[in-house]
Amino acid sequence: MKDLRDTPLLVVEDLSKRYGARIGCVDVSFDLWPGEVLGIVGESGSGKSTLLSCLAGQLAPDTGRVLYQGHDTLEMGEPQRRTLARTDWAFVHQNPRDGLRMGVSAGGNVGERLMAVGARNYGAIREAATDWLGRVEIDATRIDDRPRQFSGGMQQRLQIARNLVTAPKLVFMDEPTGGLDVSVQARLLDLLRGLVRDMGLSVILVTHDLAVARLLADRLMVMQGGHVIEQGLTDQVLDDPQAPYTQLLVSSVLQV
Amino acid sequence: MSDQAYNFAYLDEATKRMIRRAILKGLAVPGYQVPFASREMPMPYGWGTGGVQVTAACLTPEDTLKVIDQGADDTTNAVSIRTFFERTAGVATTTQTAQASVIQTRHRIPEEPLRAGQILVYQVPIPEPLRFLEPRESETRKMHALEEYGLMHVKLYEDIARHGEISTAYAYPVRVEGRYVMDPSPIPKFDNPKLGNCPAIQLFGAGREQRIYALPPYCDVVSLDFEDHPFTPSKADHDCDLCGCATSYLDEVITDDQGGRMFVCSDTDFCETRRDAGHRGRLSPEETA
């Protein structure tokens, strides 16, 4: 048997998505290895989110292939893709309201993925939920509160707990720190970095915030107008940008 | 217009055929909600338009019809539907469960065990058990198709988290033949064990929502639960005050504004049959010599 660590977790080949005459993203190819965090940066409208949706199976790309552990996720049936999406994969939305059930308690939110894969023991589900609330620094006494009673930062942490409870291998993150104030962002980044290292997660992280990319990502892809214009190790891309657009992007970051 | 201007059992034959096709499909795929072209009926939605259409499609001139509303034969809904079919179909009607061949019911299963050859028709307000958790119809259909029923347990989880036990007391979700999760219509969960392995045919009609589903005889029906919080059918912890029955489902009736109350069988036919057989309860009138 081949060791999974010697093969890429996700292989993307020539992925393109167009909206009529407009370009979503064009000819994107990359490999993602187990335990690797890939940042996708670029300005609004550069095709980052289109690319992420195509990878996560929420949008059907026009051409190209996406191989997860050797299986083509575009060829496989919807049941298998949805099974993947709630076991091996996780998706952290920018707005926690898109990723949480706002009418269901925090414990129920965390337990949902467990119950979806067949957990039928209330005590065990509750224990797992309590454990995960602790890991994302939410007080265990809040387990029966609904997410709308939570602050924005707590909601985002709850969304992360809800996604990671089934120990996925691949996490898609769409601007996970967007809309949070700076100190809350810092805490969340700290937490994410710890979880990624501890669980050996592979992450595809879409962000327009270069600081977030610098902190979390091992490797960076810079997108502009639907094309990947530069990729490489994070420090290399940010400290020695080659493409004119990347140079502009890096130099437009405000220095405090 | 005279009553004779109506076709037998109100609906025209083409409509009945359409409904029968839906019923047959429902019986072939137990628990699956079959869409059908629900007609306007001469009664408001919520009064059993789905059940009435299913009953109309099932009735033959030889049938004997019983209509119950929350167990009772003598409340508005039951009386009006019974009269409706007396006038439009001219079928015999009864209040006795054993003598009926077709029983239309709202929110109860009769206490007396059903037998082979009988049809029990339920009136269903909202046929989709996942509706309050997932408002999108496109999504709930996909969840049924792919057997993604984890969400149903999220609802039960919420019950336990908030109330310490599964507090869902009616319309308690069931899984049919290990496949479809089904809303048994708002019957009390006390009645859930009677759904499974029943010799009679059980049909469910939702008029406004335009869905028909069915349980064929001797079907496997399991109420959803957790390993450490098993399903328990519940009833008021009393005996019937009129017939003394300790095992039937009870209605609580407020008798004065001093806190006085009595518990009586919700199934009126069952209670009367017992009283006729000489059973007496706490508040039975004294025997007149």
TrEMBL record, chain A:
An example molecular function term from Gene Ontology annotations: lyase activity
Source organism, top-level taxon: Bacteria
Family matches, as CDD domains: ABC_NikE_OppD_transporters
Protein name: Phosphonate C-P lyase system protein PhnK
Keywords: ATP-binding, Lyase, Nucleotide-binding
Residue ranges occupied by any ABC transporter domain in the UniProt entry: 10-250
Extent of the signal sequence: none
UniProtKB/TrEMBL annotation, chain B:
UniProt function note: Catalyzes the breakage of the C-P bond in alpha-D-ribose 1-methylphosphonate 5-phosphate (PRPn) forming alpha-D-ribose.
Protein name stated in the entry: Alpha-D-ribose 1-methylphosphonate 5-phosphate C-P lyase
Originating organism: Thioclava arctica
InterPro entries per record: PhnJ (IPR010306)
Catalytic activity: alpha-D-ribose 1-methylphosphonate 5-phosphate + AH2 + S-adenosyl-L-methionine = alpha-D-ribose 1,2-cyclic phosphate 5-phosphate + methane + 5'-deoxyadenosine + L-methionine + A + H(+)
Keywords on record: 4Fe-4S, Iron, Iron-sulfur, Lyase, Metal-binding, S-adenosyl-L-methionine
Assigned EC number: 4.7.1.1
The protein's enzyme class: lyase
One Pfam family matching this protein: PhnJ
Family assignment from sequence similarity: Belongs to the PhnJ family.
